[in-house]
């Protein structure tokens, strides 16, 4: 049976591997997709414009792999109440879209941001995330790259854990290129876990 999607592995699994070593390992196990993490030490120079795409494109051709891109998940927060941090987070996300375009990745996965204090209502963070996602979606439209907002694990810092909030956030951004990257491992440890409530839109590659 031919499946309508390809399976891949995230670079996060190979944090201590060299880039070629990681890609070779993935293809040795017959995976077809390699998810580049933009804050991986070997990709971050490209994110910052201090290195080019040649090595990524060369390895793609050598091993017959396709890329997807994960925007920096660490030390960024597109829902931040600190406007300077929110803007810098946006800058790095937008740069990730450029990387995706240049390595022929059809999608960028990103985190929705998080709460940093209980003194500010959750709704403020959600509003900030929606404002950021509107900018991100507009930028993605220029490049024709899909954006997948990833569901998060259930803990006090996260707000994108309930399908109703996922829907609210995504539907508040009027873009055909914005959807949800569904992380099933986080669904497993999050509330609610009942299949009846799972109504996420998933980009299948």
Description:
- It is a single chain.
- This protein has 205 residues and is of the alpha/beta class.
- The protein has seven helices and six strands; from the N terminus they run E-H-E-H-H-E-H-E-H-E-H-E-H.
- The chain has helices at residues 19-28, 44-47, 54-63, 83-102, 122-143, 163-171, 184-189, and strands at residues 8-10, 33-37, 66-70, 107-110, 146-150, 178-181.
- The chain has a six-stranded parallel β-sheet, covered by helices on one side.
- It is globular.
- The protein starts with 7 loop residues before the first strand and ends in a 16-residue tail after the last helix.
- Mean pLDDT is 85; it is low at 188-205.
Outline the low-pLDDT stretches. 188-205
Share of helical residues: 25-40%
Which class best fits the helix and strand makeup?
alpha/beta
Summarize the biggest pleated sheet.
6 strands, parallel
Name a few traits of the molecule:
single chain; 205 residues; alpha/beta; six-stranded parallel beta sheet; 7 helices; 40% helix; 13% strand; globular; disordered C terminus
């Amino acid at each position: 049976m031919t499946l309508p999607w390809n399976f891949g592995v995230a670079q996060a699994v190979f944090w201590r591997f060299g880039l070629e070593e990681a890609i070779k390992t993935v293809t040795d196990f017959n995976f077809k997709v390699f998810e580049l993490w933009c804050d991986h030490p070997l990709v971050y120079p490209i994110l910052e414009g201090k290195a080019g795409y040649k090595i990524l494109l060369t390895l793609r051709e050598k091993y017959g792999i396709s890329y997807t891109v994960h925007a920096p998940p660490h030390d960024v927060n597109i829902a931040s109440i600190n406007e300077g941090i929110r803007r810098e987070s946006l800058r790095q996300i937008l740069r990730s879209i450029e990387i995706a375009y240049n390595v022929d990745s059809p999608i960028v996965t990103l985190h929705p941001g998080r709460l940093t204090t209980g003194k500010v209502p959750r709704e403020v963070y959600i509003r900030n995330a929606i404002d950021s996602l509107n900018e991100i979606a507009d930028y993605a439209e220029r490049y024709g790259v899909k954006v997948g907002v990833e569901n998060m694990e259930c803990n006090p810092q996260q707000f994108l854990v309930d399908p109703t909030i996922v829907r609210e956030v995504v539907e508040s951004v009027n873009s055909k290129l914005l959807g949800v990257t569904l992380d099933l491992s986080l669904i497993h440890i999050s509330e609610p876990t009942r299949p009846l409530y799972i109504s996420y839109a998933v980009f299948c590659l």
